[in-house]
Amino acid sequence: MKKNLKERLVEVSLQLFEEHGYNHVTVNDIVQAAGSSKGGFYHYFTSKDQLLYEIHDVFITYVIRDSERICEEYETPVARLVQMLVSFTKVFDMYQPHIRVFYQESQSLPERYHPEMKAKRRRYREILEEVIREGQETGDFRKELPVTIVALSITGMVNWTHKWFDKKGKLAMEDITSIFVDMILRSIVTEKGKVEATPYYL
To answer: What CATH number does residue 73 fall under?
Structure first.
């Protein structure tokens, strides 16, 4: 399928940022590689900084919206947590170049973009914490485990995937997701929770 101009601009900027580094790539470099003009670039982005912000925003917005959908569609904390893990890890496959570039170049993003970025990351963690908290209230997840630490452990483990996941490797992201789900569920479910969680074990 033919990409529109905005998609081409993002695609070539990801390639250039990875190859040369964000600070060594100009808007001229991006538009030339995309076969566009500066007018075309500024139609979609106010600056190169805003382009870098949107590279981050596309994947964090996806995972938030999908998590909200999951919480509406699935009825139990175990099912919600599993589906959130599936959605979260899928992002590291779908948006691998975006995530790799963002983590590599995030220090270059001006301070004015930080509050909204932090708010979106906080929103995702709040959804995850609510699912874990609900699971503790229903007796499916262990109550002695602090909710925030469980949530941070999950996000920390999955976030690190961008450093080592290889699309050409022996394991597809679906396989890695199954391993994450198995490890996380086994560590937090109670005897009651095992009834629903067992089918998700490897």
So the answer is: 1.10.357.10
